[in-house]
Amino acid sequence: MKLAFTTLGCPEWNLDTIISKAVEFDYDGVDFRGYLGEMEIYKLPEFSSDIETTKRKFNEADLEIPCFSSSIRLFTTSNKELESFKEELRQYGRLCQEFNTPFIRVFGGGIGEISRAEAIDFVKNNLAELLPIAEQYGVTLILETHDSWTKCEYVENILRLTDSKHVQVLWDIHHPYRTEGEQPEKTWELLGDRIKYTHWKDSYPDETAPRGYQLCLMGEGDIPLKRILHLLKQNGYEGYYTLEWEKVWCPEIEEPEVAIPQYIQFMKQLKEE
């Protein structure tokens, strides 16, 4: 079982702290989603002018960067926005080559009042622009089960648009179950052969919370985590199990010094059950 956490959960940790904590808590990798307040990390010295130092630190710690989590959305009606996504993809493609990272996380995006059929047409055209860049850099775009593309059927609609191996699935095991009532077995049945990466979090229903649920430490909510882990193991899943602790968006949840080690302990115990 390969375990990682995203930097979304530790917004105030610098690079040395991220690496030292990952080693201390026995993680295998770190997934970058922002760093010290900057979401477009390729603009920072650590991932541009000082990148060799960053590479050396990760190598010495024997840590991987299994994924760079971008802000790229496959659905947009704006040519200007699409051009910005293409440039973002080039920048993350460069980082993937530097760190031997196979995946770049992308979103489907919110479609608003546009019909799903029309949204699919936009996604098809946008993919035709983005995929050649992914192929050029030898990276795979992993589409997260999120926003207007949380249901497995909607994700499959996008996968059907291309036969490229450079589009696969990131199963955020929380969102389909919590927001759509989708059972894990259904998600796997439809998408399992394309699921290459997973995000993990737990929550419980809370009508007073803005989202209608409250994020919590692993095992303190009612997401069927054990069922999902066993489902993945039984079907030979070999990818990462990555904690997405949304501290940046939800400052009220526990500090990373609590949540990040708790995840490791919980997952290793769950694996033995």
Distance between the termini: 14 Å
Average predicted local confidence, pLDDT = 97
Radius of gyration: 18 Å
Structural class: alpha/beta
CATH arch. level architecture: Alpha-Beta Barrel
Helix run count: 9
Going by CATH, the homologous superfamily would be Divalent-metal-dependent TIM barrel enzymes
Shape: globular
The profile of the biggest β sheet is: 8 strands, parallel
Helix % is 40-55%
State the name of the first-level CATH class. Alpha Beta
H/E series, N to C?
A: EHEHEHEHEHEHHEEEHEH
CATH level 3 topology: TIM Barrel
* Fraction in beta strands: 15-25%
Into how many domains do the coordinates divide? 1
Explain this structure to me?
It comes from Lederbergia galactosidilytica. GO terms for molecular function: isomerase activity. By secondary structure, the protein is of the alpha/beta class. The protein has one domain: Alpha-Beta Barrel (TIM Barrel), CATH 3.20.20.150. Helices cover 41% and strands 18% of the residues. The protein is built from nine helices and ten strands. The strands form two sheets. The protein has an eight-stranded parallel beta sheet with strand order 2-1-10-7-6-5-4-3. A hairpin with a 7-residue loop joins strand 8 and strand 9. Helix 1 packs parallel to helix 2, helix 3 runs parallel beside helix 4 and helix 5 packs parallel to helix 7. The mean pLDDT is 97.
